[in-house]
Design goal:
- It is built from 13 helices and 13 strands.
- With about 350 residues, the chain is α/β, with parallel strands linked by helices.
- The chain has a single domain, classed as Aldolase class I (TIM Barrel, Alpha-Beta Barrel).
- Strand 7, helix 6 and strand 8 form a beta-alpha-beta unit.
- The chain is globular, with a radius of gyration of 19 Å.
- It has an eight-stranded parallel barrel with strand order 3-4-7-8-9-10-12-13, surrounded by five helices. Strands 5-6-11 form a three-stranded antiparallel β-sheet. The protein has a two-stranded antiparallel ribbon with strand order 1-2.
- The longest helix is centred in the N-terminal third of the chain and has 16 residues.
């Protein structure tokens, strides 16, 4: 079905296509019998897929990465497409429009996207309100990906992460600290050892004051050097956060075949060009740490084999975004079938 409508969507501006698809899905799910149709087409349920990671039980290990549902608008709808978990955001304390449009570009020959969205979202309080009134999660785990506002100087960034943490705490199952997007000026500087430890230690202190602390994860860039990845391992161990998400989008343009005018657009690249590097980062972290903490693998997953490579490299869970756009909603079930086949 998706293959029939994909050419139509790909004629649209990518951001407009996203809004049209999600709005259409929301409308469709309100029709009688629609949810059952989606479930029969796109979900795969099997107790062998259940995965326990950082104290949470996931009905399956395939999630929707942050960026797709920035404001917790579509959790009920996306849950019907077979995901085991959905990560909202990136959420910032105050609403912000993000960068000027156009800010998303398809690299069709590379099966990739470039985006420089800039954390466009309606703010942490709006997201919290939607989550509070959520009717049917369909058994999915919900993650909250949090970041800082563009206007917040880096020396005050920790205050933004604290605000988001407090606003979302009662409504999400885990948190992700995003300091790795290339689209907020200076944000990646927070991946340096000292500022990062300050943010994570502060959040952990708040977390441990809670009766039931939530897992906190760190999302990192694929462009880190081995030395920087060594620091990440040390920071995770020192701060005792729950794990790492590897990886965000890349600023590299190496090996791209699409229109040079598109390739030179600023922003982060996602999709197939990221497949190999994100898996390399997962393996490096897993090997270096002796698998001391869980890793969620994301970046260039367009098939079951892509997902299995990340799981074999050391990931406990995987997430999709760009592959979901190129391959369609059947990708989730296809990955789950591949995982079951691999289990034997």
């Amino acid at each position: 079905m998706y293959k029939l409508v994909k050419p139509l969507f790909f004629q649209m501006n990518p951001e407009n296509a996203h809004h049209n698809v999600t709005a259409g899905l929301k409308f469709f799910t309100k029709l009688w019998g629609a949810k059952s149709i989606l479930k029969s087409l796109y979900t795969l349920e099997d107790p062998r897929l259940e995965t326990k990671v950082f104290g949470l039980t996931f009905k399956n290990p395939v999630g929707l990465a942050a960026g797709f549902d920035k404001n917790a608008d579509y959790i009920e709808e996306m849950a019907k497409l077979g995901f085991g978990f959905i990560e909202i955001g990136t959420v910032t304390p105050k609403p912000q429009p993000g960068n000027d449009k156009p800010r998303m570009f398809r690299l069709i020959q590379d099966e990739a996207l470039i985006n420089r969205m800039g954390f466009n979202n309606q703010g942490a309080d709006v997201a919290a309100g939607r989550l509070k009134h959520l009717k049917d999660k369909n058994g999915v785990i919900i993650g909250g990906n949090i970041g800082k506002n563009k206007v917040t100087p880096n020396e005050d960034a920790v205050l933004d992460y604290i605000y988001c943490f407090k606003a979302l705490f009662d409504y999400v199952d885990y948190f992700v600290v995003n300091v790795s997007s290339p689209n907020t000026p200076g944000l990646r500087d927070l991946q340096e050892k000292e500022p990062l430890k300050h943010i994570l230690n502060t959040l952990q202190q708040l977390n441990l004051e809670k009766e039931a602390p939530k897992p906190i994860l760190l999302k990192i860039a694929p462009d880190l050097t081995d030395s920087q990845l060594d620091d990440i391992v040390e920071i995770v161990m020192d701060t005792k956060i729950a794990g790492v998400i590897a990886t965000n989008t890349t600023i590299s343009r190496e090996g791209l075949y699409s229109d040079p005018n598109l390739v030179k657009e600023t922003g982060g690249v996602s999709g197939k060009p990221l497949t190999k590097r994100s898996t390399e980062v997962i393996k490096y972290l897993a090997d270096k740490s002796n698998r001391a903490f869980p890793i969620i693998g994301v970046g260039g997953i367009h098939s079951a084999e892509d997902a299995l490579e990340k799981l074999r490299a050391g990931a406990s869970l995987v997430q999709v975004y760009t592959g979901f756009i190129y391959e369609g909603p059947a990708l989730v079930a296809n990955i789950l079938k591949g995982i079951l086949k691999d289990k034997g």
